[in-house]
Amino acid sequence: MARTLLAVVAVTLSLTLFQPAHAIVPPLKQPTWVELAPEQKQTLAPLAEEWDKFEPWRRKKWLGIAHRYSSMSPEEQARVQRRMKDWVRLSPDDRKAAREKYKSLQKAPPEHKEALIQKWQEYKELPEEEKQRLQDAAKAKPRPMPGKSVKSPATATKPVAAPAVMAPAVATPLVPASAPQ
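and the corresponding structure tokens:
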């Protein structure tokens, strides 16, 4: 009896262990745009054109936000709507860069996070004209391509120019002029 039970367990384990992952875990299925409830569509309206292109796990994240949306204050709801609109306007590369920056900030030491919070508070207190000037200056700066770094003019190295006068290509004798020849 014990041997039979052990054999059944062994066969079950071997079948389970040697199955491909997609055979064990069903794929994550999330609704398409037409399958969303009217309240979800209203909340997620800025994402309508992109929705069916999202990976299932991204749809799940946005559905979680839509679920919490009704419990948010009007200010929070407006902020979520603004951020969704901003997100949709970003290119795929910009979205990827934003995700990477967010991940790196999550891993940053507390002192770094506190310094960023302080800078953000200082920025929020600036007059609108100064904020606009800073935004314009940021747009004018060259943006790094993914995987490449941009050097500021202060740290960029200048190429060394070739000397204006080149040495003659003809070899001269190393014998002093006063020496007999």
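(Above: one complete record from the training split.) Residues 144 and 174 are 54 Å apart (CA to CA).
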